[in-house]
Amino acid sequence: MSYIRFGLMILTSTVVMFILMYLNTYAWEHVFFSETRTYMAVMMGATMAVVMLAYMMGMYKSMPLNIAIFIGSVILFALSLWLVRSQVTASGPSYMRAMIPHYSIAIMTSERAQIRDPRVRKLADDIIEAQRREIAEMRYLIADVSSGNVVESIYKDPPVALGTVEDALSNTLISQLDLAPMHEAEADRVLGPGARCRFNRSPEADPILWSAQGGGGAALKLNGVLITLDTAGDPQSGIAEFSAPGTTIAVRMLGDEADWRQNAELVFELDQGLTVGYRGFYACGN
């Protein structure tokens, strides 16, 4: 057997292992290129080269070439391991591209595990909601940071203060506020009958924004409270703004930027200074 064939076998196996690492992602839109997974595939390919050559020494008779393959594989293994653990090449966008498939695994296992204990089920459901929210936020940030918009500061809550349990229960940490998924029955309590539009962070999750199609108000859920919003504009014609005292939400259709991962982005702002953006899916209809 030729050494060229051996090299092609290792290369093919490395590419196959890289692809296989994506098979446990939950959804197609969660597949992003990951530098870390690339390094992991190279590390496994280098390991395979050493193991396979060690078992097939009788088929490969050139000792100098065998030694070179062993040494080269060890160096490649050490280099890829260092790249994985140091993350020296991972910028903000590449970090998020690696994290999205990782979070997607958590969604799949949390949703499909055969859980009977309600405490564990609640924990799994909380993980699912948090990961879907963070994936949508990372999709937004990947586009925003990659376009050159790197901010210097973000909103921070005031320093902690001494107090009682009652004080803690009545305190709202602005930085932790976020739009919560709304069931249609909850939207019914705010909006009148008729066709509606909705923004979903994930196709499998409930919308975080409901609006009456063609104007007439919108609804969101914030910190356990259903809030009515005024509407200006129409996202399907480009961009729309939804507002209530203390908050503004802008929804923009992505146009040529849209793909299977997203067709719109939503930016949620509070007057206190908090701003959070998501990329997801906006659609209208009954």
UniProtKB/TrEMBL annotation:
**Domain DUF305 span(s) in chain numbering:** 94-152
The keyword Repeat is annotated on this UniProt entry? no
Question: Can you name the source organism?
Answer: Neoaquamicrobium sediminum
Q: Name one Pfam family in it.
A: DUF305
> Would I find Membrane among this entry's keywords?
yes
This protein's name = DUF6692 family protein
The record lists the membrane-crossing segments as 6-27, 39-57, 63-84
Q: Keyword set for this entry? A: Membrane, Transmembrane, Transmembrane helix
Organism superkingdom: Bacteria
User: Could you tell me which InterPro entries the record lists for this protein?
Assistant: DUF305_CopM-like, Ferritin-like
Q: What is the lineage of its organism?
A: Bacteria, Pseudomonadati, Pseudomonadota, Alphaproteobacteria, Hyphomicrobiales
